[in-house]
Design brief:
Length: 196
C-alpha cells in the first residue's frame, strides 16, 4: 500500500469509525487496522491473507496480535475456483474465511489482495457483494490502474447497481485507488472526481 492508500484508509477509519472491517490482503494497511482496533475495542477487524509466509511476517510486525480479541489475522489459501465475466481465477477458501463472510456485515472492505501477481484474483470480492455489506459501507480498492483492476471496479459497480445507492471516488496518487461508498457517506468523496 502506497501513501495515498494509507492516507485514505486512516481517513476512513477516522471519519466513519467502522464497526466491522474486512481487509483482503495483509500488509502496511494492516498496521493501521491494528492501531484502529486498539483504539476501538468494540470494532471487529479481519485481515485475510493467502500467503502463509507473508501472514507470519505481518504477525511479527504487530506486538501481541493474538491477545487482541477484536483483531484477527486469517490465513485463507487460494483454493476456491471462481469465474466472473469470463475470467477464471482462484479465490480465498477455507472454513475460517467462509465463516467470517457468513457471520458479518462489513462497514469497510479493503481490497488489496490477493497479490496483484495473481491476475484476476481480486475479482473474487464481487462474489460476496452486496450481501456482506452493512447499510453504510465503504469499499476501498488499491492498485486500481491496471486493466484487470479496471475490470474489477466495473464488476463491483455492476453488483451494487440497483441494490445499493452508492457513489464512487477515484483517488490518484503513486498508485490509484477507487472508493465506493453508500450514499449516506458522501462526505468521503467531497471535493474529488466522482462517478456513479
Amino acid at each position: 500500500a502506497g501513501p495515498t492508500m494509507l492516507y485514505e484508509t486512516w481517513r476512513i477509519f477516522d471519519l466513519i469509525k467502522p464497526a466491522a472491517v474486512l481487509e483482503l490482503g495483509s500488509g502496511q494497511s494492516t498496521k493501521l487496522a491494528w492501531a484502529y482496533a486498539g483504539r476501538n475495542p468494540d470494532s471487529k477487524i479481519f485481515s485475510v491473507e493467502d500467503e502463509s509466509f507473508w501472514l507470519e511476517a505481518v504477525r511479527d510486525m504487530l506486538p501481541g496480535v493474538d491477545g487482541r480479541p477484536n483483531f484477527r489475522l486469517v490465513h485463507a489459501p487460494l483454493e476456491k475456483r471462481l469465474k466472473v465475466s469470463g475470467v477464471e481465477f482462484d479465490w480465498y477458501g477455507g472454513d475460517a474465511f467462509e465463516q467470517i463472510i457468513l457471520d458479518q456485515k462489513f462497514d469497510l472492505i479493503i481490497v488489496d489482495g490477493p497479490s496483484g501477481r495473481k491476475k484476476g484474483a481480486r475479482l473474487g470480492v464481487v462474489s460476496i457483494l452486496p450481501e456482506c455489506l452493512s447499510d453504510n459501507f465503504v469499499i476501498l480498492v488499491d492498485d486500481a490502474e491496471s486493466e484487470h483492476m479496471k475490470q474489477l471496479i466495473g464488476e463491483v459497480a455492476k453488483r451494487l447497481e440497483g441494490k445499493r445507492d452508492f457513489r464512487k471516488k477515484i483517488i490518484r496518487g503513486e498508485n490509484s485507488q477507487v472508493l465506493f461508498c453508500s450514499a449516506g457517506l458522501t462526505s468521503l468523496i467531497t471535493g474529488t472526481l466522482v462517478d456513479k
